[in-house]
Amino acid sequence: MAGRPVDHQRRAELLEAVVDYAVEHGFSELTWRPVAAAVGVSTNTLVHHFGTKEQMFEAILDRLRERLVVSTDDLLGERPDLVTVARVVWERTSDPQRGAEFRLFFAVYGRALQAPRQFAGFLERVVSDWMSSLRDVQVPGTDAETATRRATLVIATIRGLLLDLLATGDRDRVHDAAESLFAALEHQL
């Protein structure tokens, strides 16, 4: 006997509500009962639409990433270069209004590193998605090794700076360091 099929539109609606809840309440509150109560459904409904708790975490992170990509794409224009993309990503991720989203991102990232089998999909995409995009915006003719090295530098530096900013709140110092990254990239290019 097969279970009832997942209503994908309902799942998308629930996911938006679950993401908003997760951003507001953080990682420690992401258990079935509090989430279900907050979004007005039963725990069985959440399990039906998301599967395991780890799958729910991955869906949350995927949706947060989609939100960031959409908000970033709106600012880039037709042919952005690496420095422009890095600046826009930094401006979006370091926006104080997005702080809760990225605290959640880092909390789940840490959990994924501790349980890589459960979060294999997230760990496969967490770098590769940005890597591909950042390699693609580099100057045509840039060799693959150089493009990969630059993309890695941008990803790792922005994530490190964001983690520092979230931990310390020292916006001026961290933004100054980000500007140093952009200046170094401009000099290289």
Automatic annotation (TrEMBL):
Tree of life domain: Bacteria
Pfam families, per database record: TetR_N
Positions of the DNA-binding region: 31-50
Keywords of this entry: DNA-binding, Transcription, Transcription regulation
Entry's Gene Ontology molecular function annotations: DNA binding
Every HTH tetR-type domain range: 8-68
Name assigned to this protein: TetR family transcriptional regulator
UniProt organism field: Actinophytocola xinjiangensis
